[in-house]
Amino acid sequence: MTRQKVLVLWLADSALDSGVVAWSQWDGTGERRHIAGDEEQAPYANGVMALRDGWRLFQVSPLAPHYPGAETQTSYLKYEFWFEKLVEVPEG
Amino acid sequence: MADSDHLLTTTQMAQFAARGVLEFPAIVPANINAAYLDLLEDEGTPAVPAGTRLSCAYSEESPIRAFVEAPQIQGVIRSLVGEDPLVDHHFSHVAYSPATMKARGFSRPQDSQHWHQDSTIDTRQAFDIQLMWYPHDVTREMGGTRYLPGSHLRIVSEAAIGRYQNIAGQRHVVCPAGTVLALHHGLWHGGGANRGEADRYMFKLRLNPRAPQVRLWDTRDLDARHGPQQPIFHITTPQANDDLASILLEHQPWYEADTGRLELINRIRFWRYLSGDDRFDADYWLSRIENQPGRRVETAG
Question: Is pTM, for the whole model, over 0.90?
Answer without folding.
Answer: yes
